[in-house]
Amino acid sequence: METIQTETAARPATKDGYKMQGIFRFALSIMVLWSHSLAKFFPEMSSVMAFLQLGNAAVSVFFVLSGFLMAQAVSRWYWERPLNFIMNRYVRIAPPLLVAAVVAIVAHIWAAKVGTLSLSLEEVPASGLTTENAIREVLAPLFPFNGLVGRILGLTSDNYYQFVRYSWAIFTEILFYWVLFGFAICARALKTVTLAATFFLLLCAGLSVLGILSTYPLLTAWIGLRIKNLPFAFHFQWTPHFLLGVLSYYCAQSKWLNAKLNVTLFAVILAAFFQIWLYGSHGGQSAIGLLITYGSTLILTILIMASETQEYRLKFFTIGRKHDRAIGDLSYPIYINQFSLALVVLSVISLTGINLIQSSLLFRLMLWIFFNVALVCVAFVLIAITDTITVSVRNKLRGATI
């Protein structure tokens, strides 16, 4: 890992290390979408979706992929400018999340007005639709400082409801960014990557244990209760997955010749599967389907990260880096807007007098396809709006155009 500091200088100008992972990120976001929405259109698929737990597997693999890509980004562009790294991540994350918050608030208010709020993918408490929660949702892009800002504004935590559902994974990502930022700062302060990496690994191990104990009180109920009250403890249980991605990058940089790194990576893989098993079996469920889905998706992730392919040649067209990146950029707005758009689509279906459950399989299939296409189109429009503002800023922070 000592080679990190010289990697940028040693890297050939014609090879920037880009991985063709955009289409894969898009596929992961679709897995999450289907895990939440498929049973609404096809109730007969409920047991299958519950067994596979596609969404849980996809989000976990997202963390692995993010760990790899963020470690690569810090190594290539931000090693001497860690502040630019964290600023770039907020410029990337915050604007789409703010737009999603506005969209979600409007969708909820409209559905409540027309009486279709109960049709949402998950239960929406009527007590959650308050001005205070709307303000709190608009402040969410400031995470983890949104709570402090909220308290300054006099907001309370009573009847807290997140309009942008499933955004917990975005907040988990942001916490990981801060941990990686701390690693870069520590390495510069100590002037040694090895010692900083040791601290980084110990910190990640501690965060993993903290997160697991906070969610699954393995020792005593007292320990679980006390840890559960610590800020962000729930998010830290996903640390092994992010660390798996980070270590995979550095193992690849050492061409898999660093025995200590390889052994550490193997231990982290075991920890990641252990966490997946705990999460999948929590509440008496079977984790077998999740373990299979996660394992197979993880293998595909590793193959993509190891590949040097820069384009996919098909019979009638070629998918290059530009197309791959554009497709991958849809994954984020799809993830954060899926609940809101599903609420709107299901509400419109109900208002037209259609009984979705009693409709024919072919008709439900057509509506489901329309829902998926509509969400992708909305994601395209929203990311185009935010990217128009943010791309130049991010390139400037990065010091390079990609």
Care to describe what's here?
Strand 1 and strand 2 form a beta hairpin. This protein is 71% helix and 1% strand. By secondary structure, it is mostly helical. It has one domain. The relative contact order is 0.16. Helix 4 runs parallel beside helix 13 and helix 15 runs antiparallel to helix 16. It starts with a helix and ends with a helix. The protein is built from 16 helices and two strands.
Which overall shape is indicated by the principal axes computed on the Cα atoms?
globular
Rg over C-alpha atoms, rounded to the nearest angstrom: 22 Å
Broad structural category:
mainly alpha
Order of helices and strands: HHHHHHHHHHHHHEEHHH
Tally the beta strands.
2
Q: What is the terminal separation in angstroms?
A: 25 Å
How helical, in percent, are the residues?
Answer: over 70%
Q: Average pLDDT value? A: 88
Question: Keywords, please?
Answer:
402 residues, mainly alpha, two-stranded antiparallel sheet
In short:
The protein is mainly alpha-helical and 402 residues long. It has helices at residues 4-10, 22-41, 46-52, 54-78, 82-114, 131-139, 146-152, 168-190, 193-215, 221-228, 239-253, 259-281, 288-306, 321-328, 331-351, 361-398, and strands spanning 312-313, 318-319. Helices cover 71% and strands 1% of the residues.
